[in-house]
UniProtKB/TrEMBL annotation:
Source organism: Algoriphagus alkaliphilus
GO CC, alphabetical: cytosol
Segments forming domain tRNA methyltransferase TRMD/TRM10-type: 1-224
Name of the protein: tRNA (guanine-N(1)-)-methyltransferase
Localization annotation: Cytoplasm
Length: 229
């Protein structure tokens, strides 16, 4: 998979993709991420990418021309399965959206800033609008990093057995069960006996029941329609 990200603050995206699992995905040739500076597609001495809103009011609006130039240049290189705009008024991101997006070849993500982009950008180019939650960030970059991370770790081969996504929270619609590691006793506090039994079927059963219990307690909304209510 290849992900292109368009940003006016590319520096914000330098860190996340050069560490740990995402770095390994790139090294294994399973995923690549490139960040493009929108200002490189602006014209004039000022390299202007935003302007006042028609109709007045506070806040700047990202102009259509540099964005159109950037998207059209990138489209000459590849065909995108989705052109995504990160915005608080988009569809809320969740694990099922991550699963679906992890199966495509090429994604383009546009990060909003200021008051957002000229509506015509959304009408002409954007195929999917994503929010990572009901709060407002100062730009779409951190949201884009969240989405890219959640997607890339689901690409087959990116995770190994130790980091497998199959047992993640939400992957089967439930929260993950509690986990424990050494020591088996800490200050007199033990761990569930069954986990020391070596009995795989019993351990699986305990984990499933603990998942259901935890989900009922913390996120009863997730239980609806699972059949385990
Ligand atoms: N840009 C600003 N806030 C955002 C959010 N919550 N989700 C996605 N993009 C954003």
């Amino acid at each position: 998979m290849h992900i292109d990200i368009i940003s006016v603050v590319p520096g914000l995206l330098e860190g996340p993709f050069s560490h740990s699992i995402l770095k390994r995905a790139e090294e294994k040739g399973l995923a690549s991420v490139r960040v493009h500076n929108l200002r490189d597609y602006a014209t004039g001495k000022q390299k202007q990418v935003d302007d006042y809103a028609f109709g007045g009011g506070a806040g700047m609006v990202m102009m259509i021309e540099p964005i159109a130039r950037c998207i059209e240049a990138l489209q000459k290189e590849r065909t995108y399965d989705e052109i995504i705009y990160m915005t608080p008024d988009g569809d809320t991101f969740d694990q099922s959206m991550a699963n679906r997006l992890s199966q495509v070849e090429n994604l383009l993500i546009l990060c909003g800033h200021y008051k957002g982009v000229d509506q015509r950008v959304r009408d002409l180019f954007i195929t999917k609008e994503i929010s990572i939650g009901d709060f407002v960030l100062s730009g779409g970059e951190l949201a884009a990093a969240v989405v890219a991370d959640a997607i890339i770790r689901l690409i087959p081969g990116v995770l190994n057995d130790e980091t497998s996504a199959l047992t993640d929270s939400f992957q089967d619609g439930l929260l993950a069960p509690p986990v424990y590691t050494r020591p088996a006793e800490y200050n007199g506090i033990g761990i569930p006996e069954v986990l020391l039994s070596g009995h795989e079927a019993k351990i699986s059963e305990w984990r499933f029941e603990a998942s259901v219990r935890r989900t009922k307690e913390k996120r009863p909304d997730l239980m609806k329609g699972t059949g385990w209510e």
